[in-house]
């Protein structure tokens, strides 16, 4: 079976070679690696050209579409895919040699082919030199088990951790709204209409550095509370891009939803601008933050706004 792998690049000259080489050296060899650059001003494209000359599995997508952000870049890449399964890669991570083999085997055994699905595995959190003294992982269990888990997460399953099936990427490509973050869109569709499954084995090294678009959040409640004390006037629960995605998703897909899903989003729309109503919403829908309802309640009471202004 041939699988597709996609990488969206932008000014990634420091790390892209190491990431691509870790993919080319996988134990599973039967794949196409699609790369599309979003207007880099450094030597990223030169490095990709060099690598492409060494391995014909690398396919560089070149077009006249202007720079439009990482989410839209991944959307364009998905339009070039045709495999039953697609792996998503960040430009700055490093994959363990057996990542494709192990995660693909898990997906084939556990994901229904006729429903949109994500299978994902965690990664070791490392510094820019790939060093970690504590062997901290991005996840230790499935963090998206229900639709409610998406509300306060401001994200979803990390794209760099996932493999998706054909049913999912064909479904999301029907959308005509803007993708700010691709992994959030994929997670929302999978949990609403299909499945998200977790393989509890770290299969890549997730690099933390100053240029990450959205880094892994490892600070916990104490760090958040310190930030809250410093910037009370600007605190919020849900960032504006996440809120817009929820609104666009509901507008686009409400007719496909089950009644409880429709009611869930309809209630969100009606409560997100009023703190009392939103408190009632998270309590009645049992919406957790970091695994606890009490965390969600406390943070709702403390922030200035529900949705970022």
TrEMBL record:
Keywords: Glycosyltransferase, Membrane, Transferase, Transmembrane, Transmembrane helix. Gene3D superfamilies: Spore Coat Polysaccharide Biosynthesis Protein SpsA, Chain A. The chain crosses the membrane at residues 177-198. This is UDP-glc:alpha-D-glcNac-diphosphoundecaprenol beta-1,3-glucosyltransferase wfgD. Pfam families: Glycos_transf_2. It is an enzyme of class 2 (transferase). Residues 5-124 form the Glycosyltransferase 2-like domain. The keyword Cytoplasm does not apply. It comes from the Bacteria. Its EC number is 2.4.1.305. GO terms for molecular function: glycosyltransferase activity. InterPro entries: Glyco_trans_2-like (IPR001173), Glycosyltransf_2 (IPR050834), Nucleotide-diphossugar_trans (IPR029044).
């Amino acid at each position: 079976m041939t699988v597709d792998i996609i990488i969206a690049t932008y000014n990634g000259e420091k790390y892209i070679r190491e990431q691509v080489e870790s993919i080319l050296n996988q134990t599973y060899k039967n794949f196409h690696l699609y790369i599309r650059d979003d207007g880099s001003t450094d030597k990223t494209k030169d490095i990709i050209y060099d690598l492409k000359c060494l391995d014909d599995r690398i396919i560089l997508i070149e077009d006249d579409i202007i720079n439009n952000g990482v989410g839209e870049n991944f959307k364009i890449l998905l339009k070039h895919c045709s495999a039953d399964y697609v792996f998503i890669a960040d430009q700055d991570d490093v994959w363990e040699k057996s990542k494709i083999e192990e995660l693909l085997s898990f997906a084939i055994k556990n994901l229904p082919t006729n429903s949109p699905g994500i299978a994902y595995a965690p990664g070791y959190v490392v510094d820019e030199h790939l060093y970690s003294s504590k062997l901290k992982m991005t996840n230790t269990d499935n963090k998206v088990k229900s639709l409610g888990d998406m509300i306060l997460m401001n994200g979803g399953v990390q794209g760099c951790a996932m493999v998706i099936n054909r049913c999912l990427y064909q479904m999301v490509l029907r959308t005509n709204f803007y993708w700010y973050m691709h992994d959030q869109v994929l997670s929302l569709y999978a949990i609403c209409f299909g499945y998200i499954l977790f393989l509890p084995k770290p299969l890549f090294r997730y690099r933390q550095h100053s240029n990450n678009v959205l880094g892994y959040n490892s600070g916990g409640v104490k760090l958040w509370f310190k930030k809250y004390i410093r910037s009370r006037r600007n605190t919020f629960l849900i960032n504006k891009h996440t809120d817009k995605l929820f609104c666009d998703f509901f507008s686009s897909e409400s007719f496909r939803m089950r009644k409880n899903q429709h009611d869930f989003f309809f209630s969100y729309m009606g409560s997100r601008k009023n703190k009392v109503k939103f408190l009632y919403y998270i309590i009645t829908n049992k919406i957790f933050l970091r695994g606890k309802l009490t965390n969600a309640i406390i943070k709702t009471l403390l922030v200035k706004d529900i949705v970022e202004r």
